[in-house]
What does this fold into?
Amino acid sequence: MKVTSVCQISYAVNDIDKTTEAWSRLYGFGPWTFDEMSGTDAKGRPWKIRLAFAYLGPVEIEIVQCIEGRIFQSKFLDTWGEGVHHIAFPVANVDTEVEKLKKQGAGLLGHISGCFAYLDAGGPGGAIFELVQKEA
It folds into this structure.
């Protein structure tokens, strides 16, 4: 696989309001759009997150705050603290790329066929890469 562009940078935080305010004031990020998502994990436990999105040119900046439960980002925060959670790259076929990367030893962390996949980036620092299916 050869990465040719970045489509998203995701940052896990403890306080989304303080982060978006500071990034807007200091660096001019925005406008922000906010959203919330919720669901239940594989064990039936509820989770809820708050999200903020802004664009820096063609790159989407995503900020995630865990509100309730244990999800991917809350586990990241517990291990590494606030910071870049993942960098996303567009691909023509996420399923094909996932299979190739798994054969090469990449660790698959999560995958929804035809949509996206999270993979261990390899190396130190807990980096995560997301492959995102390009829209046709």
About this structure: The chain is about 25% helix and 45% strand. The first helix runs from residue 16 to 27.
